[in-house]
Design brief:
The structure is a single chain. With about 475 residues, this protein is of the alpha/beta class. The strands form two sheets. An eight-stranded mixed sheet has the order 1-10-11-6-5-2-3-4. Helix 2 runs antiparallel to helix 3. The chain is globular, with a radius of gyration of 24 Å.
Length: about 475
């Protein structure tokens, strides 16, 4: 095939790149539709000789006896296993390359900078509208958190003294909800069931302490909820102020929403005090209207923007940090990726030495990410949903960088987060709807990072409980 006209005349360094472009353009290229179709076929059709799976991380939970979960080999589908409705999934480099191709061909260019800035400014308002329309009916209560994060297991359960609740976890806890236009899902309902590769089975009888049947009556008084919204928007001085007792473990939940994690944790652990933070006044109002909020008096809900506010509530950052744990359940993904590192620094300042941040969020090449179309890209792997809320899809490398983890999982620079890595990895699940024979491949990231203990001090030393003034 002859070279394009003018090829030999290009001699400068910049011209070399142009010459390659001219040469490449002389060959016929597939249409975008063809690229998408080929990308989908690569994802859905297993290769004849599946490559080995990428190495996975095991998450330990020694206190609970977890039922074994089926594990699919690379390239396998639940369509070939009629006895299963979900299973552990595995991913290969071929799968990830196909997912990247699909996103590149169907999602178009990043939105104009002024539109990206507009949705950054409207982030709080759009989430407030989300809770106005859905109230506390959208996400399910997260009763599975103990299985994923051993740090949340009450000390009494670890020592075999028993705890509140009974029975064992059931399949209803992992019931699947339908995606709405491929952009929004009940991540709590789709959350992972712990598998033997992540949570080795224990011979103890601690599973008898679990309960998936706990239910909390939702608030049904709109007038009360609207009144609480007004208080949250600037009249908190008249609302109930709760403070922790000296024996309480203190948990911060960043992006608490309407309390789907807060209240199951309070119900099961009588020694836990929770600071529930969210930048949506309506979400905080719904938390305060929950019956358990006033009954337990072990929760303080605060309207707080972790991105715009200079720090977490000041009383949490005094004396080297006041909190034992910080829980981030699908909260970081709602922030612009460039702002998360500064949020990690704020979290570090609020934790006691040895305190930990617990993260579960959307993972790179999750099914929901692959369904976004043109007009939704705010940045690389950062998207705008149809309701105006946003979602970022993390890699484990993203989390390590954002939380300032050094090489080998050791402590990094304090200005960049300065956390130590306890564990970090992907959680992959494959689900199937037998009614229409459609499989879905879900990906989450799971991480636990620890604030290092200063030399010469013990874990949590130098952090007395201080009453919060809000």
């Amino acid at each position: 095939m002859p070279l394009p006209d003018g090829y030999d005349e290009i001699t400068t360094a910049a011209g070399c790149w142009l010459s390659l472009a001219l040469f490449a353009s002389s060959f016929p290229s597939p249409s975008p539709r063809q690229c998408v179709d080929e990308g989908i076929s690569v994802i859905l059709q297993p290769p004849p000789n599946p490559p080995p799976a990428l190495p996975s991380v095991t998450f330990s939970q020694p206190y609970l006896d977890i039922q074994a979960a089926p594990v699919l080999p690379p390239g396998a589908s639940l369509l070939d296993h009629p006895e299963l409705v979900w299973a552990e999934d595995t991913s290969t480099e071929r799968d990830e390359a196909a997912a990247a191709l699909l996103c590149a061909t169907q999602q178009g260019a990043i939105l104009a900078p002024h539109r990206v800035r507009r949705f950054e400014v409207l982030a709080s308002k759009n989430w407030d509208m989300f809770y106005k329309h859905n109230r506390d009916k959208f996400f399910k209560d997260r009763h599975y958190l103990w299985k994923d994060f051993p740090d949340l297991v009450p000390q009494g359960m670890k020592e075999g003294r028993g705890g509140r609740g009974g029975g064992r976890a059931t399949d209803e806890e992992y019931e699947e909800e339908k995606l709405e236009d491929g952009e929004r899902e009940d991540e709590g309902a789709l959350q992972s069931r712990p598998s033997p590769s992540e949570h080795p089975s224990s011979s103890s009888s601690s599973s008898s302490l679990l309960s998936s049947s706990l239910s909390f009556p939702p608030p049904h008084n709109p007038a009360l909820q609207e009144q609480d919204v007004n208080q949250s928007k600037g009249n908190d001085s008249e609302s109930q102020i709760n403070t922790p007792a000296p024996h309480h473990r203190i948990l911060i939940e960043l992006g608490c929403g309407v309390g789907n994690a807060v209240f199951p944790l309070l119900e099961r652990d009588p020694d836990l005090f929770v600071y529930a933070l969210d930048f949506s006044p309506r979400a905080i109002a719904l938390v305060k209207a929950h019956p358990l909020y006033k009954q337990t008096k072990r929760c303080q809900a605060i309207v707080h923007d972790a991105v715009l506010d200079p720090s977490l509530p000041p009383a949490l950052t005094l004396n080297g940090g006041q909190a034992d744990l910080c829980l981030c359940m699908y909260a970081l993904s709602a922030m612009a990726p460039g702002k998360i590192k500064s949020v990690a620094v704020k979290i570090r300042a609020a934790l006691k030495p040895g305190g930990r941040v617990l993260i579960r969020d959307y993972g790179r090449w999750d099914e929901a990410q692959l369904r976004f179309k043109r007009g939704h890209r705010l940045a690389e792997n950062f998207y705008l949903r149809s309701d105006g809320t946003r979602a970022y899809y993390f890699s484990v490398e993203d989390l390590r960088e954002m939380f300032g983890v050094g090489e080998g999982g050791e402590e990094g620079e304090e200005e960049g987060g300065g956390f130590k890595e306890v564990e970090v990895g992907y959680v992959r699940r494959q689900y199937i709807n037998r009614g229409d024979a459609v499989t879905r491949r879900r990906v989450w990231v799971h991480a636990r990072f620890e604030k290092p203990v200063e030399k010469g001090k013990g874990k949590g030393e130098g952090a007395d409980v201080i009453e919060m003034n809000v």
